[in-house]
Amino acid sequence: MILAFDGASTDLSIALTDPDGTLVGEVAWTSGQRQSAELLPRAAALLTAHDAGWGDLSALAVGTGPGSFTGLRVSMALAKGLALGLGRPIVGVPSLPAWLAADPGAGAAAARAGAREAYLALRDDDAIRIVDRDELPGRLGADPVVAAAELAEAFGLRETRPPNGARAIAGAASRSLSEDPGGDDLRRLEPIYLRAPRGVTAEVEATVRWL
Questions:
Q1: Chain center to CA of 61
Q2: Fewest CB atoms within 10 Å of the CB: 5, 49, 97, 120?
Q3: What does the alpha-carbon distance between residue 78 and residue 76 come to, in Å, rounded to a whole number?
Q4: Reduced DSSP (H G I as helix, E B as strand, rest coil) percent helix, strand, coil of the chain, to 5
Q5: pLDDT of amino acid 121
């Protein structure tokens, strides 16, 4: 079985699938910045509900963002820790395209990128852009938008649907593993940030000296 996590927003999801990607079970909920306290217990409960245990997992999958810095770090650390501890392959899948794959009726997916900005993915467009909140409505078109409830409320978005990307992440991981059973490099797998966290710059401020 493949266990997939999506923590790119405050609307979290976990999915359990067969190795071929067939959905076994899933759970989705809104978290008040409690990803670190909620993801593991929910995953354990999902396994128990389907008479499965950690040893039944054949692989881990995780959404790589972009999106919430905290959510991505927590979900990535959990998935990588399980992959390392169980000796299973792991696959990272971009979150916003997964949101669109899980909701064929949506025309765009948006995630929080800051106080006044959002990450935006349009269907049939590979690029993910950072868009100012005032520009966002004009970029969305008439189709529904997949966006976390927190972002939709803060930015005044209408016709939104909550993300439930874990099932699509698991499906993409299944296809990837059929071509490369080894999965991604555990040491190099990192979230897609697109921008630095608040207060962090990419500029080198000083020379590192080894003592």
A1: 10
A2: 49
A3: 5
A4: 35, 25, 45
A5: 95
State what percent of residues in the chain have pLDDT above 90. 74
Angle between helices 35-49 and 69-86 (to 10 degrees): 50
Sorting pLDDT into bands at 50, 70 and 90, what band is 115? confident
Whose tokens are 């921008």? That residue is 195
- For every residue of 102-120, which 3-state class applies, written as one string? HCCCCCEEEEECCCCEEEE
CB atoms within 10 A of CB 200: 10
Alpha-carbon distance 174 to 29, whole Å? 24
Are the CB atoms for 61 and 173 separated by under 8 Å?
A: yes
Q: Residues 29, 30, 34, CA angle at the centre, nearest 5°?
A: 110
> In whole angstroms, what separates CA 74 from the centre of its chain?
11
**The token pair that represents 21 in the structure block:** 């990607």
Per residue in 144-197, pLDDT tens? 999 988 899 999 888 899 999 999 999 999 999 999 999 999 999 999 988 765
Q: Are 12 and 162 in contact (CB under 8 A)?
A: no
Instruction: State how far Cα 69 lies from the chain centre.
Output: 11
Contact (Cβ atoms closer than 8 angstroms) between residue 61 and residue 5: yes
